[in-house]
């Protein structure tokens, strides 16, 4: 009986510690910006999901393409129908790892530099990307930020011939995630 009690306590402690290694959000922010001669294009999605395992450095992000909101309704419609083809490719995902996870001190105050490598899937095309970002411990978890650029042609997002030269071929993406402990 004593052995069973000790074993039960060990299992509870282990499972609690394991869940505290993972952090999650469903309200992450991903924005993109395209500085083009015709018009500056900006959009924000505040419904990105992200899970981060601080022991392994594994990170995964997922979002619905229709979650991007634009200043102008017509831009949003064109984005979903003509560029992202959200009806065919409703999700974008990233699955990767923080390369320098072993060098991070999660008890340290302030932002720490991270290097993330993984697979980014947009428009049904998966490409390996590497980018730098920051992670900062907060009272309830972590904040993760990153900025990087993609080329539309890499993801087979076609620019209609009528607007070639008026829309930028590179898009700047910003990611801001406020993560809390993951609970089952």
From TrEMBL:
InterPro entries: Lipid/polyisoprenoid-bd_YceI, TTHA0802/YceI-like_sf
One Pfam family in the UniProt entry: YceI
Top-rank taxon: Bacteria
SUPFAM superfamilies tied to this protein: YceI-like
Lipid/polyisoprenoid-binding YceI-like domain sequence ranges: 31-180
PANTHER family noted in UniProt: PROTEIN YCEI
Name of the protein this chain belongs to: YceI family protein
